[in-house]
Amino acid sequence: MYMAEDYNSPQSPYWCLKSLIVGALSDDDEFWASNEVQYPESGESRAAVVVPAPQQILCNHPRGNHHFALTPGQFVAWPMKANQAKGCKFAYSSAFAFSVPTGPAIQQIAPDNQLALSRDGAKTWAVKWKSEPVRFGSMEISLPIGAEKKMTVPVTRVRWFPWGDRAVCVDSMMIPPTDQWPDWHIGVYPV
Question: Taking the model in full, what pTM does it have?
Fold first, then answer.
């Protein structure tokens, strides 16, 4: 098992475990006697926000139980261990970890938040890596399905090719959470 990558270093806030710094405080530090307070509300919370620069939709539905990022165009260009599993998924959650492959079989690659395709009878699998530029738009959805109430949500589309010969094309569309399903996103993948 690999516990680190080439880019890991003590200055990285994601890897240096800064949350453990409180363990270095003395027993009589005022931190240990302070009252617990609620995390401050930032004001109005939007269910989904398009962030153009990283080509993502941040999802934090007010009635949801976790927040996550839809990341349709994200990829890792440099060679690292399990780069498609770590940096090329369609969604990343703050509450749920992601799988990293242990072998080539579908049970071993565990393609959570990915679409895995095979063209050799399930001997090998391909998932998204590089893609064409991400496109953002919006969609009007009836809530509940078929009802009068409508909700407009941002959507993102991306085209990608699972194999280098570009013989197979996938047009992926990601739809963020709605009032009807505040913890779910929808992926549509015409192949």
Answer: 0.77
